[in-house]
Amino acid sequence: MQADNQASTKHIQVGLAERSYPIYIGQQLLPQLAALLPSLPQQICIITNATVAEHYLATVQAALPAECTVIVHYLEDGEHAKSLTSYGAVMDALIDASFNRDCAILALGGGVVGDLAGFVAATYQRGVDFYQIPTTLLAQVDSSVGGKTAINHPGGKNLIGAFYQPKAVVISIDCLNTLTPRDFACGVAEVIKYGIIHDAAFFAWLEQNQASLAARAPAALVHAISRACEIKAEMVAADEREQGVRALLNLGHTFGHAIEAECYEDWRHGEAVAAGTVIAAHFMQQANELSGADYQRIEQLLQAFELPVRAPLLAESRWQQRMQRDKKVQAGQLRLVLPTRIGHAELRKVSDWPAVWAAIAALSETSQ
Ligand SMILES: NC(=O)c1ccc[n+]([C@@H]2O[C@H](COP(=O)([O-])OP(=O)(O)OC[C@H]3O[C@@H](n4cnc5c(N)ncnc54)[C@H](O)[C@@H]3O)[C@@H](O)[C@H]2O)c1
Ligand SMILES: O=C(O)C(=O)C[C@@H](O)[C@H](O)[C@H](O)COP(=O)(O)O
Ligand SMILES: [Zn+2]
């Protein structure tokens, strides 16, 4: 991972040998797409949704080289769009348009658009070029980087997918001006995650700069997004296919994905991750492996951004069934990402279900 702060546009490189790629972070980058992405092919499919298109599609289309053939495919807005049905519809559109193997898929939107578009790119004609233009904070700090592409199955989150890296990621922070407060907070949940698992100084910076980040001040945004992308780039470069350190990026997700799968559309991903993170922290505090002070700081920082710190009330059997579908489960055994202090977390095998259930129950909505 290298960072270049000399120009006003930051450039972080995800180091994956011949598949290395740049992340560009700055202001008003959409009009500069052609210069930032000089290798765009002749056939381009933009995957987006109506909410995002209303604000940004015309700028992106105007920025693409005039000689390109551009088709636009609209997904429905919402987590339900990460489905086999939507995936099939994009495939139909690409085939109907006679797009070849040298086409490119351009994801313009949040994590839903990016995850599905990436899976389309990974599988259309066994793989075509893919570019990420993330427009939510969550997508800018997490989902657009690292190549986890996926769609959901009624059985659970992200159960169908592939590791498939983009050719480049273009993060234009002005896109965040139109994001709702709720979706902005969802991105902050994943930003806080990086502080907990890897960088105590970054966590402290977030505590100290809550107000400017919540106000979406450009300098605070650039710092938070850049640091998040640097940490993610480093972990992905070290462990692209999640055999080791990359699993730490899953803090709170075993709980969070269970919440999302049970309550699709009511809970956003970032909200479920926030509640799941607090459960993981509580589990460790109860085991005397995380200090009460650190637990309080984690809960308070999430609350400061108006993120939920209590899980919905679900039956124990629903939790157990959903958590058993987590992709980190090995030989039927749960593996959870657990913080031992702010700045450090570990992936642990956990066989003591009653202790896990006690943490969930203590932090479910009725116990507030
Ligand atoms: N691949 C990964 O590594 C990874 C990482 C984290 C999350 N995810 C996935 O990402 C998804 C969540 O992503 P998300 O939080 O971006 O949700 P999302 O894509 O549903 O976007 C949230 C909402 O914001 C709208 N929106 C997007 N950009 C906007 C803008 N600039 N202005 C106004 N509205 C805008 C969307 O239309 C949507 O209504 C989940 O499916 C999650 O599993 C993947
Ligand atoms: O990039 C990763 O690795 C992550 O785990 C990032 C997570 O924030 C993200 O939600 C990811 O999609 C979860 O992956 P999954 O393997 O648990 O489905
Ligand atoms: Zn996530």
From TrEMBL:
GO biological process, one term: aromatic amino acid family biosynthetic process
Sample GO molecular function, one term: metal ion binding
Pathway entry: Metabolic intermediate biosynthesis; chorismate biosynthesis; chorismate from D-erythrose 4-phosphate and phosphoenolpyruvate: step 2/7
Cofactor(s) recorded in Swiss-Prot or TrEMBL: NAD(+); Co(2+); Zn(2+)
EC number: 4.2.3.4
Residues engaged in binding Zn(2+): 190, 253, 269
Any Pfam family: DHQS_C
Similarity-based family: Belongs to the sugar phosphate cyclases superfamily. Dehydroquinate synthase family.
3-dehydroquinate synthase N-terminal domain: residues covered: 74-184
Catalytic activity: 7-phospho-2-dehydro-3-deoxy-D-arabino-heptonate = 3-dehydroquinate + phosphate
Species of the source: Pseudidiomarina sediminum
Cofactor note: Binds 1 divalent metal cation per subunit. Can use either Co(2+) or Zn(2+).
Binding site for NAD(+): 77-82, 111-115, 135-136, 148, 157, 175-178
Predominant cellular place of this UniProt entry's protein: cytoplasm
GO CC aspect terms: cytoplasm
Function field: Catalyzes the conversion of 3-deoxy-D-arabino-heptulosonate 7-phosphate (DAHP) to dehydroquinate (DHQ).
Database matches in NCBIfam families: aroB
Record keywords: Amino-acid biosynthesis, Aromatic amino acid biosynthesis, Cobalt, Cytoplasm, Lyase, Metal-binding, NAD, Nucleotide-binding, Zinc
Domain 3-dehydroquinate synthase C-terminal as annotated: residue spans: 187-329
InterPro entries, per the entry: Dehydroquinate_synthase, DHQ_synth_AroB, DHQ_synth_fam, DHQS/DOIS_N, DHQS_C
Protein name: 3-dehydroquinate synthase
Compartments in which it is found: Cytoplasm
